Amino acid sequence: VGLLLGPAGARHEEQVRVGADGVGFRAWRLDPDRSGARDIGGQLDRERRVNSWNDNLAAARVLSGAGVPATYFITSGYVDRDSMLTTGQLRQLAALPGVEIGAHSVSHPYLDELDGNQLAREVRESRQWLRGALGHEIATFAYPHGAHGPRVRQAVIDGGFSAAAAVKNAVSHAGDDVFAVARWTVTAEHGVDDIR
């Protein structure tokens, strides 16, 4: 299950701690080869993917501190805007152990509603900006609003990405299309029993 974790806080920390203390799942960044994989807890009775888009540095520290690898998807055009992640914070986020930075477009539009040129720009320029800001390759993408179809999927492939996450609110599995990995949104309303 890909977890989209909400804002940091006591509930968020409790949700992460449940996974780290033995629920028995395998967490990894979205990277397709799963090189960031780490077993958490007891046996692997359920395989879950933890990929979080959240521009809250405090939330990232909770995950990293619990040893949970995560992919943070960043809308590049929102960086350095009021009450959003700054470039400095983005660099701090990227430096945390187990953290991967992925692209999430430039302006967070419904990509399936854009013409071909606009679509290519949103995908390509988000990756270019992040690569320039961080000084390393950006391999993964998350579809804004989860909106994707064959044309959008192809634009992401053409943009040079190796994997992409969708929002399906479903359990992901090893057979997922690497350009449509499922995630499950975890909010403050979810208790620890929902995560188990």
Written description of the protein model:
- By secondary structure, this protein is α/β, with parallel strands linked by helices.
- Helix content is 33%, strand content 14%.
- The protein has helices at residues 10-23, 57-65, 87-95, 116-134, 150-158, 192-195; strands at 3-5, 25-27, 38-40, 70-74, 99-103, 140-142, 163-165, 184-186.
- The strands form 4 sheets. Strands 1-8 form a two-stranded parallel ribbon. A two-stranded antiparallel sheet has the order 2-3.
- α3 links the parallel β4 and β5 (99-103).
- It is globular.
- 40% of the residues are buried.
- The model is unreliable at 1-10, 21-26 and 33-55 (pLDDT under 50).
In brief:
The protein is an alpha/beta fold. The protein has helices at 10-23, 57-65, 87-95, 116-134, 150-158, 192-195, and strands spanning 3-5, 25-27, 38-40, 70-74, 99-103, 140-142, 163-165, 184-186.
